[in-house]
Amino acid sequence: AAGCRAATTTPTPTPAPARPMISEVMAGEQGNNNFEFIELYNAGGESRDLQGWSLWYRLASSEEDLLVYRWETQDFIPAEGHFLLVRGGQDVGAAPDAVFEQSLNTRGGGLALRDDRGDLVDAVGWGRAPAAFVEGQAAPPLEDGFSLERITPEGTSAAADQDDNLSDFVLQTSPSPENVGSGPAGALTVTLQAPESAAPGSNLDVQVELRNASDAPLAGVTLTVPLPEDLQVASL
């Protein structure tokens, strides 16, 4: 899986379930505690709509679930692709797909990803982690400038998912956040043309062009074009 680094000492993992999961977390750098991001990875062969899903954070010393982000509208994560959430106002080297404001703690904590029914889909805890937000044993505590990244064992192409955070994640000295445009989906370019203004009651044309710049066909692609509710589609 793109964005997950090799580790020679990790056994061959259980194949990752065909669903989104947490793939990388960073909780600050030296001199900037707000330099934070959370990356998701979709291990499935089709894009997934995250509408209704939510991401939660909890400290080891608390039983309070703190909302990091909730997908209120349609928002897709590509097949075998990523979705990047970045702390507001921070530039982590890749454009955010969503922005959050809840601070994370380097020494301990946990994240939980829940689907649109509220069911727990994935969890990762590190350092002094809350038991409810840990799979197996907790991953090592984060350090300033480091990230926790889900590993891809050498000789495999599947992200590790052994339901054990300690085995599935490793500290990285060079964080590598990826967004929906990384990997195969990055070969797609979208061009939209529309007038800057239109009189009430008038007709206007909106043209959308989608190009695949890669050498291979891409399957499971969904293109969403949000329109204001007071616009009526006359024809397609």
- Which radius of gyration do the C-alpha atoms yield? 19 Å
- The low-confidence parts are 5-11
Number of strands: 16
Question: Termini, distance in Å?
Answer: 36 Å
Structure description:
- Helix content is 2%, strand content 35%.
- The chain is mostly beta strands and 236 residues long.
- The strands form 5 sheets. Strands 9-8-3-2-12-14 form a 6-stranded mixed β-sheet. The chain has a 4-stranded antiparallel β-sheet with strand order 6-5-10-11, with no helix packed on it.
- The longest helix has 4 residues, at 165-168.
- The protein is elongated and about 60 Å long.
- It starts with 5 loop residues before the first strand and ends in a 24-residue tail after the last strand.
- The relative contact order is 0.21.
- Residues 5-11 have low confidence and may be disordered.
